[in-house]
Amino acid sequence: MDSIRIVGGQPLHGEIPIGGAKNATLPLMAAGLLTEERLTLTRVPRLADIETMAELLAQHGIAVERCGNDGRSLSLGGAITNTEAPYDIVRKMRASILVLGPLLARMGEARVSLPGGCAIGTRPVDLHLKGLEQMGAVIELEAGYVVARVAGRLRGATIIFPTVSVGATENLLMAASLANGQTVLRNAAREPEIVDLCHCLVAMGARIGGIGTGELVVEGVDRLHAATHAIIPDRIETGTYACAVAITGGDVVLRDARVDHLGAVSRVLEEAGIGVTEVPEGVRVRRLNGLHGADVMTEPYPGFPTDMQAQFMALMAVAEGASMITESIFENRFMHVSELTRMGARVNVHGASAIVRGVPSLTGAPVMATDLRASSSLILAGLAAKGETVVSRVYHLDRGYEDVEGKLSAVGAKIERISE
Ligand code: UD1
């Protein structure tokens, strides 16, 4: 297993390229199941999760090919030959559940393994299933699999989500685009990744109103067609590198990043003393004068993202004063706390909130990554710490960050991958 070795204390200067968003690419790949024609996605990041989704689609019969001059495009096409998503692939990545809606809408049946437990909480899929049932699907659970069937086509329905769910909104949007009649999704997620999915579906011939709002209205069509779509830049990769600059003190342009997708992240960073400005190349981030404690609560977009909580905690660990970080989306998403503590952070967790008392500096240590965003928070802590930090189990990091050691060393960090 690979690990990442960091010697902290180097301020970052220069430019970091931001790749296409992982969480936009995964549902867009599932959308490839909605048409027999070709879907071409550009600006696709090179990440383990993308490979997992490609593997899943391939066993459904969809040919997934890397193409384009830069090898960053994916072309998807072919007939669906199998409507089962097996446990062996689904257990590796929860987002596999996103094939359920498209398979059911296209083929009238799907058998998808339940994702099972997950390090950051129970994460049920009940909202996905209830919505599909409202659209006429009959759903049974058999030996750990969701077995869904519909006679004829799914039919439009008004679905009111009791909680905002990114994945359920995506699954039902895709299903509704091929349903009979109108579907209204109320209290829908408004994340930029949802907007990106809507834009791609519209390019494929879907009819969607209310894009970017909490109420999406979909008029189902008989079939969707070929399209080419460029993936939006990854706002979580952007936010993570913004925290890297903030924690080391430096001045970096995050190339191709979009400030308008950062939501509460740019406001909170500014409150902490970090300059976040739009420039023609992307977003410029620099430490202005000192780093100050700031409180955050994770919320659906445009609130502060749960996927930035761990990284922000690393930053607050070395800020002046105290900050309170409240996690309202997932239970059990504070696994990074014990590892940050080993590096000298002062953090107390009370239920869903963590009080972070800033210390002047962290000290390097061997630490272990427990999930994707926890891994990046340990990388950030290592960049700021005195001495050497070795982060092990970096396969978590490779699920969502492309070439983290290359991107950070290019702007002055002392960081390298140790391959075994
Ligand atoms: C997506 C993101 C993930 C991010 C999360 C929240 C992808 C591939 N993953 O995950 O990185 O952390 O959004 O921004 O895009 N819930 C239910 N029932 C359901 C579905 C969800 O109770 O059927 C609950 C969850 O347990 C959680 C909340 O709703 O408390 C939000 O989860 P959701 O938005 O669905 O997260 P994901 O789509 O799994």
Spatial sequence of strands, sheet with the most strands? 22-23-1-24
Shape: globular
- What portion of the residues fall into strands of 2 or more residues? 25-35%
- Work out the helicity level: 25-40%
Structural class category: alpha/beta
- Major pleated sheet: 4 strands, mixed
Number of helices: 14
Number of strands: 24
Cα-atom radius of gyration: 21 Å
Mean pLDDT: 96
Describe the overall structure:
With 420 residues, the chain is of the alpha/beta class. 30% of the residues lie in helices and 26% in strands. The chain is built from 14 helices and 24 strands. The longest helix has 14 residues. It is globular, with a radius of gyration of 21 Å. The structure holds uridine-diphosphate-N-acetylglucosamine. The site of uridine-diphosphate-N-acetylglucosamine has 21 residues, from helix 1, helix 5 and helix 6.
